[in-house]
Design a protein that fits this description.
The protein is an alpha/beta fold. The protein has 9 helices and 10 strands. The chain folds into 2 domains: 75 residues, no CATH class; 193 residues, von Willebrand factor, type A domain (Rossmann fold).
Length: 292
Amino acid sequence: MSVPPLWYCLYRCKIVVTPRYFPHLHFFANVGKWGNLDWLLKALVVLLMAAALATPVVVDYSDPRNRNGVDMVLAIDGSGSMNASGFGDEENGRMSRFEIVQKIASDFVMKRIEDNVGVVLFGDFAFIASPVTYEKEIIAEMIGYLSHGMAGQNTAIGEGIAMSVRALRDSKAKSKVVILLTDGEHNSGSISPKEAIAMVQKGDIKLYTIGIGKPGEFDNALLEHLATQGGGKFFAATNQKELQSVYDEIDTLERSSIKSEQHTFFEHYYQWLLSPVVFILWVLIWRRRVAL
C-alpha cells in the first residue's frame, strides 16, 4: 500500500505540525433552520456592508449640464451721472440711479435660473466685473460691490459693447445676448458705437439697449439704432417702476440648449446602507449580553 505523498514528505522531512486553536467554534456550527435570527442578522450585515462598499451613486446631468438658456452680459453704465437721485419710487426716493439699477439687475440675474450671466461696467473705459458664469449668487454679490465712477465719469458706450462682446468670446451657446443700460450719451472711449455694433453682428450676438432718466438725458436715437442693428430692442425708462418692467419684458427672451461641462452632480447613498448596519450590530451585541 503506497503512502500518500504529503504524509511521506512530512515523515521524511521531519516537519512538526503545530496545532492551531480557534476558540469561536460556534462560527462553524451548522446554522440549521433559516429561522435562526442571529444568522440572518449577520448575513444581512454582510450584504449591507458589501452594498455600501460598492458606493451606490446617482449622477445628475439634468442641471446644469443640459439646461436651456442663453449666455448673457449686463453692460451697466457706471458714469458720474448715475449718481443722480430722483429715479426711485417713494420708498427708494433717496437712492441713486446706480443703486436702483444694482437692485433691479441683481434680482434679474437671480431669476435667470437656466442662464449664464456676466457683468460689464463702463464709464471712460469698460471692464469685465464678472465673467459669464452660472454662479448667480456670486454675480448678484459682485453687482452689489460695484459703484459709479469706478470706470470714470464719462460714458463710453462703444467700449461697453465691445467689452461685452469680449466677455462672450468663448461662449458655446446658440443664443448670446448683451443688455446695455445707460443714462447718457456716448462721449468717451477709443471704440465708436459703429465699430462696436460691427463686433456684435460678427459675433452673432443680440443687443438690447435701455436708456434711463428724463427724456433728452440719454441718446434715444443712438440706442434705438444700436438695438435695431443688433437684432434686439430699445427700451426707455423714466423711473424705477418702468425699469423693472423693462427687465421683466427682457426676461421673456428666447431660450436655446447650452451645456456646461464643469457641472456634474453626484449624490451618494452608502450612508443609507450603513445606518441599518449600525443598528443591527447594536442588536446583536445586546442579544449576546442578555444571553450571558
